[in-house]
């Protein structure tokens, strides 16, 4: 009898007991065996509020074989994956909104500084001065239409590029931030799994 399994690259749990149903999708034509496998315990975190453990899919197969040795297991997912345990904690609203405010301020002033340094490097003020004088035939006296158009265009361009304005998304495509976060998450998981394998800390059939 075939059993098809597909684990996720990483899973975050808030309970220490890890069961098959917590870490992978599973299909078997025999629903009794499928349910037995899903409820099979894989690992138990013993100490600490924040832990992680790398697993080899071979360890999962070994545990499934404990349910029924005659099963043929087909892995459709990654060969290694990580399980994170984080104790569920209630965060105060003050702390929650404080973090949001901090991120907003960092993003605002960081972006402002980057735009100002870029404008200084390329000499945008001198360019606007020369363009205005060339078209209008006289020197500009303070901010003009070029500054207003540049400012509005910069804001619109940022919104279009990042595909995000508050809770509004222009389309269903992931934003550049979301793409980079997924790539970063994948790189972190790959690094952790390689380190765990080298240090022989991975849960494998030989461990």
In short:
The chain has helices at residues 20-23, 31-38, 57-67, 93-122, 124-136, 145-162, 176-198, and strands at 2-7, 10-13, 17-19, 24-28, 41-44, 50-56, 72-75, 80-86.
What does this molecule look like?
With 207 residues, this protein is an alpha/beta fold. 52% of the residues lie in helices and 19% in strands. It contains 7 helices and 8 strands; from the N terminus they run βββαβαββαββαααα. The chain has helices at residues 20-23, 31-38, 57-67, 93-122, 124-136, 145-162, 176-198, and strands at residues 2-7, 10-13, 17-19, 24-28, 41-44, 50-56, 72-75, 80-86.
Helical content stands at 40-55%
Q: How many DSSP helices?
A: 7
Poorly predicted parts: none
Major sheet strand order? 4-1-7
Structural class: alpha/beta
Q: Tell me the β content.
A: 15-25%
Average of the residue pLDDT scores = 85
SSE string, helix = H, strand = E? EEEHEHEEHEEHHHH
- What can be said about the biggest beta sheet? 3 strands, mixed
Distance between the termini: 27 Å
Calculate Rg over CA atoms.
27 Å
Shape: elongated
Query: How many distinct beta strands?
Result: 8
Question: Could you name the key traits of this structure?
Answer:
elongated; 3-stranded mixed sheet; 8 strands; alpha/beta; 19% strand; 207 residues
């Amino acid at each position: 009898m075939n059993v098809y399994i597909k684990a996720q690259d990483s899973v975050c749990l808030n309970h220490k007991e890890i069961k098959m149903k917590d870490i992978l999708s599973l299909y078997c034509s025999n629903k009794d065996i499928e349910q037995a496998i899903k409820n099979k315990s894989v690992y138990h975190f013993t100490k600490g509020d924040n832990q992680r453990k790398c697993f080899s899919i071979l360890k999962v197969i070994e545990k499934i074989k404990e349910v029924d040795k005659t099963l043929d297991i087909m892995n459709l997912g990654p060969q290694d994956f990580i399980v994170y345990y984080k104790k569920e904690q209630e965060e105060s609203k003050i702390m929650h909104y404080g973090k949001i405010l901090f991120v907003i301020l960092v993003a605002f002033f960081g972006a402002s500084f980057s735009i100002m340094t870029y404008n200084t490097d390329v000499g945008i003020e001198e360019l606007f001065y020369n363009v205005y004088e060339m078209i209008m035939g006289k020197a500009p006296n303070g901010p003009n239409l070029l500054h207003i158009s540049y400012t509005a265009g910069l804001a619109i361009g940022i919104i279009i590029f990042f595909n995000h304005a508050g809770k509004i998304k222009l389309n269903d495509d992931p934003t550049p931030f979301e793409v980079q976060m997924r790539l970063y998450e994948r790189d972190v998981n790959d690094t952790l799994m390689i380190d765990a394998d080298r240090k022989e800390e991975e849960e494998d059939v030989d461990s």
